[in-house]
Design a protein that fits this description.
With 198 residues, the protein is mainly beta. It is 7% helix and 41% strand. Strands 1, 2, 5, 6, 15, 16 and 17 form a seven-stranded mixed beta sheet that branches. A hairpin with a 5-residue loop joins strand 16 and strand 17.
Length: 198
């Protein structure tokens, strides 16, 4: 079961990360380069929190430590973007892969913006994606939304899609040390990263 990180205090700073499993093949004899896209490209966040008192800090640290062995959930930043009124977005049909998500249940005329982030829940796991083209929901509440990266798992009809409060789910600082500072005033200074697991 995923651990939800506290939403207070709100982070001072975010850095969005991209782990790209594709690559470019460069022929050693000077031929044209080729881009190879591989399934698995995913997002992460590097987060810096404001100084916290001992009580707040210990709660945050306890949850971060749990996030070394089980996934954590925290909001993905979408500042200054109006995302309410989407309706009840769901996946419209089973989708095995590709770079488009078929949606249903949305508010007619809702404008999905190019660069807008959202998450899809499949088999209890959240996956962050970004819309790669402005798309307006049609008169039936449907849309075929182009996305980045390509789908990392097959989707099932009625999987939940969330544009209003996208959440990232992953492990805390995978492959790196997790550390925090304790000041002379007993305050806690915490910075960490979360990378999606799939």
């Amino acid at each position: 079961m995923a651990v939800t990180l506290p939403t207070c205090p709100y982070p001072n700073d975010y850095q969005v990360l991209l782990r790209d499993f594709g690559g470019v093949l460069t022929p050693f004899l000077g031929g044209p380069e080729q881009r190879i896209n591989r399934i698995g490209t995913r997002f992460g966040l590097r987060v810096v929190l404001p100084s916290m008192d001992a009580g707040e800090g210990q709660t945050y640290i306890a949850r971060l430590l749990q996030g070394r062995s089980q996934t954590v959930i925290l909001p993905f930043p979408i500042f200054d973007l109006e995302t309410t009124g989407t309706g009840t977005p769901l996946v419209r049909t089973d989708t095995a892969g590709g770079s488009t998500i078929p949606l249903k249940g949305m508010t007619v005329g809702y404008p999905i913006k190019e660069g807008q982030f959202f998450h899809v829940v499949h088999s209890g796991q959240r996956y962050i994606y970004m819309a790669t083209a402005a798309t307006t929901v049609n008169g039936s509440g449907n849309a075929d939304l182009p996305i980045f990266p390509i789908l990392r798992t097959g989707l099932t009809t009625n999987d939940v899609v969330n544009f209003e409060t996208p959440m990232i789910e992953g492990f805390v600082s995978p492959g790196d040390d997790l550390s925090w500072q304790i000041g002379l005033d007993n305050g806690r200074e915490i910075a960490f990263s979360v990378m999606e697991i799939a």
